[in-house]
């Protein structure tokens, strides 16, 4: 199936009975979470990419919120990055990602909720044009990174948040981590790079994740992310960036 993003003038590719389908966008950090889970578990599926600036009506009929990811199999439709990821983990229990310990799951839920705080500040900095505002947001982002550095330090077994092997939260956090260097590309901020002296645990986490096959298979270089983000800022995102004509 073509990776090109389908827009308003498209028709929905007919679903195949019993075939799992992911509605996605190649640069969406939230869809990235679900794609990592699918890749980690080697779950057979097909992908339909959506032009999120020019959404097809048939996609809005599936998910009126107009957001990705969305999973579909026969008459089952599941939206949201955490709902889709956890459904996949339950239905395909091999290489289980959610911690068995209820307390650990609760702690990871707190870590997940905190990502939204970091993302709000991060994207605010990306779209800001005021130097002082960007500086303030960078100070706040440093506090968020310190929060995750401390949490990783408390989990001594490392290098992942899940310990010696990644758990679900590692795949929730990674899309934010992968995109973080875009700040230094777009805003010319050396401080927006990961400092291995200041954040040694996060630096080790990044190196370990980048060696994982599911991460490698879906990764984009920070320069590519920067090109896509710049398109979003100017109102002309290229959803088909890096695809052959």
TrEMBL record:
GO biological process, one term: glutathione metabolic process
GST C-terminal domain ranges (all copies): 101-241
A GO molecular function held by the record: glutathione dehydrogenase (ascorbate) activity
Listed PROSITE patterns: GLUTAREDOXIN_2 (PS51354), GST_CTER (PS50405), GST_NTER (PS50404)
Entry keyword annotation includes Nucleotidyltransferase: no
Catalytic activity: methylarsonate + 2 glutathione + H(+) = methylarsonous acid + glutathione disulfide + H2O; L-dehydroascorbate + 2 glutathione = glutathione disulfide + L-ascorbate; RX + glutathione = an S-substituted glutathione + a halide anion + H(+)
Name of the protein described by the UniProt record: Glutathione S-transferase omega
């Amino acid at each position: 199936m073509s990776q090109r993003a389908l827009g308003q003038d498209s028709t929905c590719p007919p679903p195949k009975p019993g075939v799992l389908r992911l509605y996605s966008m190649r640069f969406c950090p939230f869809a990235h979470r679900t794609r990592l889970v699918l890749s980690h578990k080697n779950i057979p599926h097909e992908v339909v990419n959506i032009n999120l600036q020019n959404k097809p009506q048939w996609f809005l009929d599936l998910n009126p919120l107009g957001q990705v990811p969305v999973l579909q199999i026969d008459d089952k439709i599941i939206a949201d990055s955490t709902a889709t990821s956890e459904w996949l983990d339950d239905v395909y229990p091999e290489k289980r990602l959610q911690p068995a310990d209820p307390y650990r799951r609760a702690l990871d839920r707190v870590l997940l909720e905190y990502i939204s705080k970091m993302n709000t500040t991060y994207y605010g900095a990306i779209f800001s044009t005021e130097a002082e505002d960007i500086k303030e947001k960078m100070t706040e982002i440093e506090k968020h990174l310190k929060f995750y550095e401390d949490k990783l330090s408390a989990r001594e077994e490392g290098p992942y948040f899940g310990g010696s092997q990644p758990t679900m939260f590692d795949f929730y956090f990674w899309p934010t981590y992968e995109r973080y260097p875009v700040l230094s590309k777009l805003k010319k901020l050396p401080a927006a790079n990961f400092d291995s002296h200041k954040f040694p645990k996060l630096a080790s986490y990044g190196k370990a994740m980048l060696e994982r096959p599911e991460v490698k298979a879906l990764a984009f270089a920070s320069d590519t992310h920067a090109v896509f983000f710049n398109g979003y800022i100017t109102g002309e995102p290229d959803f088909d960036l890096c695809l052959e004509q």
